[in-house]
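Exam revision sheet. Question 4 asks you to relate a sequence to its structure. Input first:
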Amino acid sequence: MPIHRTPDEHFEGLEGWPFAPHYTMVDRGAMVDGGAQGALRVAHAEAGPADGPAILCMHGEPSWSYLYRRMLPIFAAAGARAIAPDLVGFGRSDKPSEQSDYSYARHVGWMLDWFDRQDFHDLTLFCQDWGGLIGLRLVAARPERFARVVVANSFLPTGDGKASDAFLRWREFSQSVADFDSGWIVNGGTARGISEAARAAYNAPFPDDRFKAGARIFPMLVPTEPDSPEAHENREAWKSLERFVKPLLTLFGDSDFVTLGAEKALQARIPGAAGQDHRIIERAGHFIQEDAGEELAALVLRFMRLSA
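Answer key, structure tokens:
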């Protein structure tokens, strides 16, 4: 599993990104292939006091922790400790070179290994896109570590239902487009648009196509059939989530055509969702953090009963 590591200079001077990286080494084959097969470096950004209530912010495809640049300072100003990791293959984290190096199971294993090494307790999870597909697996595996969960534009698919036409179009596009331009993709997944500088920041982790194997393959790893890899494991995770009585809040964008509607199943199946102030955010697309980051941060702090 040869890996690529984006040079540090690609992250210098990014718009709205003053955060220094923190690094944790995880087993390459953690929880999947027996572990102890060398190590991968996982990066995370952090803001706020080390002893503050912790908020784990998990990104998806094809973004990185930069997606949370407007939310981290608001959390920190309220006295919370905000942590935003880069998934393997993204941001400052290591990037295995081949698409075959990536699987849903490996992503869960890598992040569960990272999670355990942080020794989190009483954690608030904010997850979007693949941040939810992986983050909800963390909740299912370690429910005692979480105090509450916020799900934004995400779900835990088992392949038992029909994938949306919007997702199927995105999956086909991801495999056929010649130039996998992350900044352009993120901009297209918003309702309000992002700046040229922000588009450049989303492309910063990917100097060329050699660095994009993880981003390219991610859409193909979503379980879309009942026998897809990790479909069974997600069904098992749902059994844990259906016993999760701690508070769970959904915040979905009204202009996200990939996941809008999935919040209803989360609200119906997870006990902790009962009675919460669920929201559909107006003029917000799939990358809801770009369209409504400040609003989201305020809603999360209210959910945590913290003052902005």
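Marking note for examiners. The first strand starts at residue 3 and ends at 4.
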